[in-house]
């Protein structure tokens, strides 16, 4: 069985560095837990770090979080599905929203549950994912302010996740100006300007973050130790908070080139081979891991001599060449993972989760 391991000392190191950094700048930050896919073992490790807030895009994950710590403040970070309104009010203290009719349903449900439900209204700043159009912001807030049991606690935006539109000083200044406009027009205080995510962190080091941005939502940089803006490892943080290992279930010296007529494989791919490889052999290892669990483009062998041959639904085949390290059936091969690799692996029920 394949195993994904959370290295808690690396996680704690990254958390403490980020927490110190944000506190020094007067910024509140929320840990994004969606990559953990509701795994209770790993969520407990996050909550041991005592974050101020955690946020997730799945209500079922928030339910697990509230089970572990009912007092932690939780944020639901995508527009609320209408069929999930009752659960969002129950398990999310704050939700991010863009649809007035959905917010009306949240208001009605909050009254039923005798709660004040807090919301952050997301504004479209060019990424074209979730967000109220800028010309509609004032009228939107006006309508929301009329609703019972709804407290508007923030204005926010999302950048980089869909088309890779990077945050900029100009875009984030726009967000702070909308906050000032809403406060002045309606005589209401908007505590959070949630314009920050992992990709925005480098703007702070470059002294390009507008002073009004006071709330960040951070996942990838915490777990991967990455500078997301520049797509490079951060020199200030530890990488490989998560590692993956997969068991070798077959290891045989075989030809490098398949025999027979070629069609498409299970992914619909077709292959061609270099004629120079005909007659050559190498040691091929089959791993107890497949496309169902990970995409091989998102995992990276620690042994740099290993190359991928290909994958099927539940097996990955790697080239060990001459097998200098004398791997054998039953041995594990270890991999590092990027964010999408860790996300896919965490979502697989066929991969064991371990804390080390």
Automatic annotation (TrEMBL):
Keywords on record: Isomerase, Pyridoxal phosphate
Stored SUPFAM superfamilies: PLP-binding barrel (SSF51419)
Domain of life: Bacteria
Molecular function (Gene Ontology), one example: alanine racemase activity
Segments forming domain Alanine racemase N-terminal: 9-225
Pfam families: Ala_racemase_N (PF01168)
GO cellular component: cytosol
Keyword Isomerase set for record: yes
Required co-factors: pyridoxal 5'-phosphate
Protein name stated in the entry: Predicted amino acid racemase
Organism for this UniProt entry: Paenimyroides marinum
Higher taxonomy: Bacteria, Pseudomonadati, Bacteroidota, Flavobacteriia, Flavobacteriales
């Amino acid at each position: 069985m394949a195993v994904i391991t959370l290295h808690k000392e690396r996680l704690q190191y990254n958390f403490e560095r980020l927490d110190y950094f944000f506190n020094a700048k007067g910024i509140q930050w929320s840990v994004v837990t969606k990559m953990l896919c509701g795994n209770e073992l790993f969520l407990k490790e996050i909550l041991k770090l005592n974050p101020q807030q955690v946020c997730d895009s799945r209500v079922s994950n928030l339910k697990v979080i509230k089970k572990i710590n009912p007092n932690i403040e939780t944020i639901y970070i995508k527009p609320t599905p209408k069929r999930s309104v009752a659960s969002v009010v129950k398990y999310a203290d704050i939700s991010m929203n863009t649809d007035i009719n959905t917010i009306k349903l949240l208001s009605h449900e909050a009254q039923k549950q005798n709660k004040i439900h807090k919301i952050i209204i997301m504004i479209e700043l060019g990424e074209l994912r979730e967000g109220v159009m800028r010309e509609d912001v004032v009228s939107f807030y006006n309508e929301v302010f009329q609703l019972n049991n709804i407290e508007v606690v923030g204005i926010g935006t999302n950048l980089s996740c869909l088309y890779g539109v990077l945050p900029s000083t100009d875009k984030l200044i726009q967000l702070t100006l909308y906050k000032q406009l809403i406060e002045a027009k309606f005589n209401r205080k908007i505590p959070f300007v949630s314009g920050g995510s992992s990709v925005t962190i480098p703007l702070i080091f470059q002294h390009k973050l507008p002073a009004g941005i006071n709330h960040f939502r951070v996942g990838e940089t915490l777990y991967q130790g990455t500078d997301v803006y520049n797509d490079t490892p951060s020199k200030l943080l530890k990488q490989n908070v998560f590692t993956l290992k997969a068991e070798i279930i077959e290891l045989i010296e075989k030809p490098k080139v398949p025999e027979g007529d070629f069609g498409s494989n299970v992914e619909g791919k077709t292959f061609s081979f270099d004629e120079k490889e005909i007659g050559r052999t190498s040691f091929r290892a089959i791993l107890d891991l497949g496309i169902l669990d990970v995409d091989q483009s998102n995992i990276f062998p620690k042994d740099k001599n290993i190359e991928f041959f290909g994958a099927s639904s539940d097996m990955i085949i790697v080239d060990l060449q001459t097998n200098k390290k004398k791997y054998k059936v039953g041995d594990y091969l270890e991999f590092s993972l990027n964010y999408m690799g860790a996300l896919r692996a965490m979502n697989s029920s066929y991969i064991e989760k371990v804390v080390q």
